Amino acid sequence: MSHTAVATVAAIRMSGATPVLVDIDPDTYTMSPNALADAMSPTTRAVLPVHLYGHAADMAAICEIAETCFVIEDCAQAHGARYQGRPVGSFGDLACYSFYPTKNLGALGDGGAVTGNDAALLGKVRLLREYGWTPQERYVSHVEGVNSRLDEMQAAILRVRLRHLDADNEARRRLASLYSDLLPDLLKKPVEREHCRHVYHLYVVQYSERDRLRAQLAAQGIGAGIHYPTPVHLQPAYQAGQVRATALPVTEQAAREVLSLPLHPTLGEAQARTVVQAVAAALQ
After folding, report:
1. For position 236, what pLDDT does the model report?
2. Which CATH number is correct for 6-162, 3.10.350.10, 1.10.1760.20, 3.40.640.10, 2.60.60.30?
3. In whole angstroms, what is the distance from residue 215 CA to residue 224 CA?
């Protein structure tokens, strides 16, 4: 999908593969199973759904469509999110997590993890993590790897923060519920699909005059972000055949209209109500 952080696509390019970008579901902003089905071909080797903004992609449909391929879940924005009672990251062959400080489970610096249930596949990932070395033959590169180790300090911080993830996610959900109840209906608000548990890494609304709304909020001292203003297929670095994409109308409309309102576990209810009042005033 093209409506994602460019890191998702950069990882595919680094593997030597060609990303084929598909459109998104207009309500959840996650991969559209119908668009995926249309894009599948005999050369498709892997499918990479992104659990964007904290909402799970439709993994049952995606895994059925991609049954002959690897499925690699991008869980960077969805620590603790669930789909059909199971945590995201437990459906595909591998799952990738980011621990960037702003994530639901964040360290104090860069970090990430890859998880999965296939021991052989995870063994290959471990080889890539540190120059192709094994514990038995350190300094012997069996494949061309990189230096991508999580340092001990970040691991220690994450071990403590993990204990608070569920409580932090519940705080996010309470604030999201307040927003959804009180924000004007002129905005398109986030949804939580049946059998899903949204963890609201971001609270993203959609509005046709997004830039005007953002400017008026900024004038009142309220910052609002745009995730993501330029779809990957329109990025300058990917205009020479590095990616393949057909028409992506839902993606391009989202890029023009989405706005992320302030939301994090330490945001107070009074502050959230101030945001609501500012938005309501801006839309009058």
Report:
1. 97
2. 3.40.640.10
3. 9
